[in-house]
Amino acid sequence: MQLQDAGLLKTGAYIDGKWQAADSGETTAVINPATGQSIAEVARCGHAETQQAIAAADRALADWRARPAAERSRYVRKLFDLMMAAQEDLAQLMTAEQGKPITESRGEIAYGASFLEWFAEEAKRVYGDTIPAPSADKRIVCTRQPVGVVACITPWNFPNAMLTRKIGPALASGCTVVCKPAGATPLSALAIAELADRAGIPPGVVNVLAGKTGEIGEALTSSPRVRKLTFTGSTEVGKELIRACAGTVKRTSMELGGNAPFIVFDDADLDAAVVGAIASKYRNAGQTCVCANRMLIQRGVYEEFATRLEAAVAQLRVGDGVDEQTTIGPLIDRQAADSVLEMIDDATRQGARLVIGGRRSDIGDAFIEPAILTGVTDQMRVFREEIFGPVAPLIAFDTEAEAIALANDTEFGLASYFYSRDIGRIWRVAEGLDYGIVGINEGLISNAAAPFGGMKESGNGREGSRYGMDEYLEIKYMCLGGLDR
Ligand code: NAP
Description:
By secondary structure, the chain is an alpha/beta fold. It has helices at 47-66, 69-85, 87-98, 102-122, 161-173, 186-198, 213-222, 235-246, 270-282, 299-314, 334-349, 381-384, 400-408, 423-432; strands at residues 13-15, 18-20, 27-31, 38-43, 129-131, 139-146, 149-153, 176-180, 206-208, 226-232, 251-255, 260-264, 292-298, 353-356, 371-374, 391-397, 412-413, 415-419, 437-440, 455-456, 459-460, 473-480. The strands form six sheets. A seven-stranded mixed sheet has the order 14-15-16-13-12-18-19, with helices on both faces. Strands 9-8-7-10-11-21 form a six-stranded mixed sheet, with helices on both faces. A three-stranded antiparallel sheet has the order 5-6-22, with no helix packed on it. The longest helix has 21 residues, at 102-122. It is globular, with a radius of gyration of 23 Å. Bound molecules: NADP nicotinamide-adenine-dinucleotide phosphate. NADP nicotinamide-adenine-dinucleotide phosphate binds at residues 153-158, 162, 180, 182-184, 213-214, 217, 232-234, 237, 240, 255-258, 289, 386, 414, 454, 459.
């Protein structure tokens, strides 16, 4: 990893505007999933350092929330500028620790930074309300105030954007943050802390530390000073954290797992559907929460779609993400690849057919050849569970009603996709899908202007868009009485 700015490779914990080691002196290795080699040793923090970070965020809160919105906006904007100026280095860091192809890492930095730009602008538009009062001597005024200290816990699949999507609105609204990135990918988050420091954001407003998952989680969820937890990760851990937050009745935003249906109707533009399927299914080697997980194909176009998809998958290139030609990098580690191979086994044992790929690649233990399974049924694990790997299961259906029923037959409700050119069908299906996000004739749905989030066990709350700001604000109702005396 050759960085133009070596100062972006940080390995300490960033607490109260200073870099420090773990109190115990312990470190954890960060492993490059493509090579299995250690690329850095990062401070392994625990309960004590988390308490220090919470105290720092709490001290910084009064000053930060009192600053004019335009001033906070300038700081967040500055962070955006610094992030874009460092795009190439941040992308190299990300590919080294996460594995995704370098072109995707560059894209994620721009996508992650776009949340900072967006919320820097939104900072200036946190309006209140006046409401007609029930009697002549009263006035009702509503203001919106920052929630307070916010804990941010993020996953490894988007190590930059999942954090900026939280830090952006939190800082813009006047909150301070304590962030815990995933153990596998702390370097991208620590680099953001370094840029926050360079942007002149006051000490204590942004704190980032990695280390002992359970200890950090317990300290954040049990602290009465932390007023909100915003979490992106698995549904299983999300449920655990909601329970842990109940003790102090924290607000929570939960961006959890998905099981996205990708429906192709027989009136669809099949070429467009294949392009959308490749983008949605195989990006980040299938490790996104909005990845198409189940491809529901109407029987009349099933064979044709399978053939065209196979031709497109054959063009994908598996390799180390640093190679500019790579389109499919490694999974996050060997265990992740094992788990995907087990799901493929489960499907083929029950009668599904592997038409391409689906084997561990010779390149390394964490690499899987992109795959397509046909003849998949709703009894197979690939239908029920989040695959998190480059495997497209194809399921045939006959009617529109059947497609909607199959699509909704899951506890998840994050992203969904369908392809059709019939305007009546487009409205019926879009309204019938129990999902927070519906891509219609489109496989790429994420951007800072749109509300991202799920229904059912995919979580609560929305990130990005004008709604994203609400998650960090409390409504305060003021009743002015005695006005006619
Ligand atoms: P994960 O295992 O749930 O971990 C997510 C984060 O939670 C990591 O930082 C992890 O730390 C931390 N964590 C785990 N147990 C914890 C505990 N007891 N207390 C406090 N923190 C704890 O998920 P992942 O494997 O990293 O990410 C993949 C999942 O994220 C998938 O299900 C995916 O769908 C979901 N996701 C959802 C969205 C969305 O917007 N809805 C976006 C991206 C990903 P360690 O790494 O240290 O274990």
